[in-house]
């Protein structure tokens, strides 16, 4: 039997990997490969933080393969060309892979299939990324859903197959291994070592992802429904980068949560488990929308918002303050600094910080999406697009634009003692609870006692909340009036 190449992409794991399982079951040697094909990603090649994660996840995958007597072959360049070259080098007769759904990648994959067919190679693809593939869920008219609740209700009528175990024993090796680049030759790590904070916060790889899931299910999951919106509490799974890179699959997560209560049907009886699986459903919905509306990463889904009157920001001063966590609103600044230092931000704080950029500063949501894309270790095109269009009010099933988060109100409800702010904005650590979320209202003696000098050690608010809110609503009204006219 000729060898089969397994083309790893967003599925950097051995467990529940249908392409790998099929190649092993085929009976011949298995040649695992990864091709860094930046050109195929269009404008959305992995950002800096994602490339750091990818570097270490590929190293972890290679280590797992070597435990099975195999190895990961690395290449760089056009995927069709490189897969053809690698197939020839080892005499492969087939190439298997798991599907991705980004528009530019789908276009590239069609070309790859054609290239492999010219070589007479068997080409097969599988689903390992989603519970429900985007084209498999349709509304009553046979079209795509644009509202989450009926979409998710329909999904819950579909059985989720059990995850597959990784191939047993040693993987069959080819008589001749193709030449491989060294991991460092992919140049995924930057020349300037800015990622030490990310390295302290995370351990990429399938084993680390499995350990994270094992800790979450008997631990934080129990209070997830109550704690998930609290950034001062470790109440979330933090599995998002693991899911994005495919170090854990959604079927594995689904069945890990269902396992304790199989008798309860589709969902376990726990309210927290239902809430968590619903968040997994939003991830599915994001891919559903991206597939059916492939232009949304670049433009608003709702046409009326394509002419929204964004504010002028000479020199990008306001955008820069937001990026650096220097807006003068502690909860926003804490989130942006957590992002910069760890490559991740608590989901509720993402909403507050995103709303602040789009509505208080009236900076286009696309600017925020690009910044998140470059700085998040879990940067995912479908989810990033859905999140930003949701908060900007311009996407499918989005929050109304006139729903504007009040940063102080949100902060005092979700970070009541200021623990989250104290961690990420240490210059405010000495502020009393009463003023930690609104230091500009503190009397001078209180500021002095806390070692805070507004405008020097910590900025004053770059916009007034009430005025910014009214400006956003006026912009929204003018957009609607233009539409009527």
Structure, explained:
It is a single chain. Helices cover 46% and strands 5% of the residues. With 485 residues, it is mostly helical. It has 3 domains: 1-128, HUPs (Rossmann fold), CATH 3.40.50.620; 130-161 and 205-292, Alpha Horseshoe (Serine Threonine Protein Phosphatase 5, Tetratricopeptide repeat); 303-484, DNA Cyclobutane Dipyrimidine Photolyase, subunit A, domain 3. It has a 5-stranded parallel beta sheet with strand order 3-2-1-4-5, sandwiched between helices. β4, α4 (103-118) and β5 form a beta-alpha-beta unit. It is globular, with a radius of gyration of 24 Å. Mean pLDDT is 94; it is low at 261-266.
Primary descriptors:
about 475 residues; Serine Threonine Protein Phosphatase 5, Tetratricopeptide repeat; DNA Cyclobutane Dipyrimidine Photolyase, subunit A, domain 3; 3 domains; five-stranded parallel beta sheet
